[in-house]
Design goal:
This protein has 15 helices and 14 strands. The strands form three sheets. Strands 4-10-9-8-7-5-6 form a seven-stranded mixed β-sheet, sandwiched between helices. Strands 1-2-3-12 form a four-stranded mixed β-sheet. The termini are far apart.
Length: 403
């Protein structure tokens, strides 16, 4: 049956998106799902046969293709093969998985940790396992979609507070019924804006109103803190986060997600979260790569300082050129364009001049807030960043965005 002949809401949604994508392709401004043909030394890639500077990667410390990490993955394949053919609860747990979880717990200064098949799945299953009908969850307005989906899936009363607005959060906590379970969830570094949650005030409010606190560190591990341990090290606050979530696919060049916390919490998740019980275990190479990556971060602290220097160069340079980079203080640097069309036009010019950036448009961000979401890493040379800024500036100047 041709679904296009079926007149219902689902097919209308499919057709509307098909038309939008076709328009982008017809105008030669469809930039998504471009296959990277080769990852080259430094922060370069080969795309469509051309070598380009990569400014859309989450490899914040430049650990992709690190020899120690690659070697650990190869040894794991030689010893265990390419898959576990099982879920963790039954035959899928390897010594590698236990070693990885112990490494994460030590890195995050907790009693225990648990790993999942992706960061998205981690947020989805952890929130929906811990919270249920009659409970209350409070989420920052611009939290990652996986957090939002986990809150909705839990069936709990779902309240969103204005972005980083602690006064609004307090009002919502104050109005929640007495005696109910409460969970506050926030990104540490917000993935579209690059700014940081007000952790000290958030912890203060959670203590005052007897709420659990869950922090998603997808974009802060290896980025924040002198040794890259994340938001707690950044603020010098080591007590107050009950559920420490992170990913293994950004700074850590692998795949998966984790939660670190006290042993009772982790045991509950290990025996109660459906994504752990019913999902296949991480492949051996990925578990070994992630395990070695945490050790490399601690052994090579120069990478974090290099990232900080590159971040300051990029943000200060773009601001000095007249671009609006919102409130970012991290390696995620939005270049505000306004309309979707301007974001696509700016991206097109940059990619034609070998600067690989990507546009973020509605509905991923609010209409009128389309942007480039550029990233810098420890692998970039300052001269490369200067050239990328020159390209972005020339494009912005041609478009009338800057003078």
């Amino acid at each position: 049956m041709d679904i296009h002949n079926t007149d219902n809401a689902a097919t209308r949604r499919i057709e509307a998106l098909r038309q939008r994508l076709q328009t982008l392709k017809d105008n030669d401004v469809y930039f998504y799902n471009q296959p990277v043909e080769e990852i080259l030394e430094g922060a370069k890639v080969r795309v469509n046969g051309r070598v380009m500077g990569m400014y859309a990667s989450y490899s914040y410390l430049g650990l992709v293709n690190h020899p120690r990490i690659n070697e650990a993955a190869k040894k794991a394949v030689d010893k265990f093969g390419t898959g576990t053919n099982g879920v963790r609860t039954l035959a899928g747990t390897l010594t590698l998985h236990n070693e990885l979880e112990e490494t994460i717990a030590n890195f995050k200064h907790t009693e225990a940790a648990i790993t999942y098949s992706s960061g998205y799945v981690t947020n989805l299953t952890v929130i929906s396992t811990l919270m249920g009908r009659g409970d209350y969850v409070f989420s920052d307005k611009i939290n990652h979609a996986s957090i939002v989906d986990g809150c909705v899936m839990s069936g709990a009363e779902f309240r969103r507070f204005r972005h980083n607005d602690m006064e609004h959060l307090e009002g919502l906590l104050k109005n929640a019924p007495a005696g109910v379970a409460k969970l506050v969830v926030a990104d540490s570094v917000f993935s579209m804006d690059g700014d940081i949650i007000d952790l000290p005030k958030t912890i203060e409010l959670c203590k005052k109103y007897n709420a659990w606190l869950m922090i998603d560190e997808a974009h802060s591990i290896g980025v924040l803190g002198k040794t890259g341990r994340g938001i707690e090290e950044h603020f010098g606050i080591y007590e107050g986060i009950d559920i420490k979530m992170g990913t293994l696919s950004k700074t850590i060049p692998s795949v998966g997600g984790y939660v670190a916390g006290n042993k009772d919490l982790i045991s509950y998740l290990r025996h109660g979260s459906r994504a752990y019980i019913f999902s296949a275990a991480l492949p051996p190479a990925q578990a070994a790569a992630a395990n070695e990556s945490f050790k490399v971060i601690l052994d090579e602290p120069w990478r974090i300082e290099r990232l900080n220097q590159n971040t300051r160069l990029f943000i200060d340079g773009l601001k000095g050129m007249g671009f609006d980079t919102l409130l970012t203080v991290t390696a995620i640097v939005p270049v505000l364009c306004g309309s979707d069309e301007r974001a696509f036009e700016l991206t097109k010019y940059c990619q034609e001049n070998d600067v690989f950036v990507l546009p973020v448009v509605s509905p991923a961000v609010q209409e009128g807030m389309a942007r480039l979401r550029a990233t810098v890493t420890a692998a970039h040379e300052p001269s490369e960043i200067e050239r990328a800024m020159d390209v972005i500036y020339e494009a912005g100047k041609r478009m009338g965005m800057v003078k």
